[in-house]
Description:
The chain is an alpha+beta fold. Helix content is 30%, strand content 12%. The protein is built from 6 helices and 4 strands; from the N terminus they run βαββαααβαα. The protein has helices at residues 12-16, 42-45, 60-65, 82-99, 107-110, 131-134; strands spanning 8-10, 28-31, 34-37, 102-106. Strands 1-4-3-2 form a 4-stranded mixed sheet. The two termini are 20 Å apart.
Amino acid sequence: PPAETPVRLFTEPELARYDGQQEGQPIYLAVKGVVFDVTSGKEFYGKGAPYNALVGKDSTRGVAKMSLDPADLTHDITGLTEEELKSLDDIFNNVYKAKYPIVGYTSRRILNEDGSPNLDFKPEDQPHFNIKDEF
């Protein structure tokens, strides 16, 4: 499928606007710094839905641990077990990348805290990503 809209870079406050609380707004969820449009799964991610706590932020740790604990709703994967990291990769590839369109990346994924480029970022690993359209 062609990517019609350019991929965006989301700051945490921008991503927080897409938390499923406003009717008619898209619902976004970030995992591993990749922002997915999960609006088509509104029954899971919308207002009052079982996984609404995950949206509007990078919930990588929560996805890895299968946890909705507010302390786990973060990008930070420090201290996760091998099993949790494997689970994260499985869910990332077989659920999110397989089902939902990528609409962008968290700024943290592309830039380090000091604003320098994150050398580990590999856009070519992502589907629907055409580097000439983005930079």
